[in-house]
């Protein structure tokens, strides 16, 4: 993994964990998500226009770019929907690791099968260590329950939505890796943000009501603008890293953000702290080092 790709991923993890913290702290997560997407789409519209003119996208008959844009919009609609419900039902320091944990476990497999990527042995070991760390964070304290009654943990709504979120991450990671070969990464990110905001609006309006959405926007103006810009920046950096390195390396490497998410949950949201979360975070960092050192 190149040094530039690693740097982009590390910056992305800080931005990603920060906007997830702002989302979890909000009173109404679905309304907050819609507001942050709309704010990002509006504030960054000039950038989107400039990028569109500077890096035009081929017609659907000549390139799969627009089909991939449409696919990622649908997947991100499902992602934001399940993520918001997950945070409404569970702790940041539990939902975040589970949601992010499926990516590094499944994306490398999908990348080998569908994209023809290869994985060096140190990176493979690093991916395994990252996954072990993620699930150490997520399941510590519930390990006996999980081993003896694995279905029981699924009774928790936050866990179920976290797993659904993780599966959408796996799908859109593969789609997006293919897309950045045809679309400039930040233009692709803007189109995804705009499209997801448009698709999500009628759903959230019907579910939450205009009064709730307006109140959320009014009471969280600063947080919404910051979260919107962080969302755009975080995944834009990841898309750029994907254009430079293998998605089978980038997807696990960005999960160092789990460590940041856990720390934010513990110190800022006063969520429970235990040895499992410390041990799991150590595994994640060790796995990142192994991936970073891989060719």
Structure description:
It is a single chain. By secondary structure, the protein is mostly helical. It has one domain (3-292). The chain has helices spanning 3-25, 29-43, 45-54, 65-89, 92-115, 121-139, 143-148, 157-179, 185-208, 210-219, 221-244, 247-253, 257-267, 275-292. The protein is globular.
State the end-to-end CA separation: 6 Å
Mean pLDDT: 87
Form type: globular
Number of strands: 0
Into which percent range does the helicity of residues fall? Answer: over 70%
Provide a compact summary of the structure.
The protein has 295 residues and is mainly alpha-helical. Helix content is 81%, strand content 0%.
Describe the secondary structure blueprint for this structure:
Elements: H1 3-25, H2 29-43, H3 45-54, H4 65-89, H5 92-115, H6 121-139, H7 143-148, H8 157-179, H9 185-208, H10 210-219, H11 221-244, H12 247-253, H13 257-267, H14 275-292
List key phrases describing it.
mainly alpha, 14 helices, single chain, 295 residues
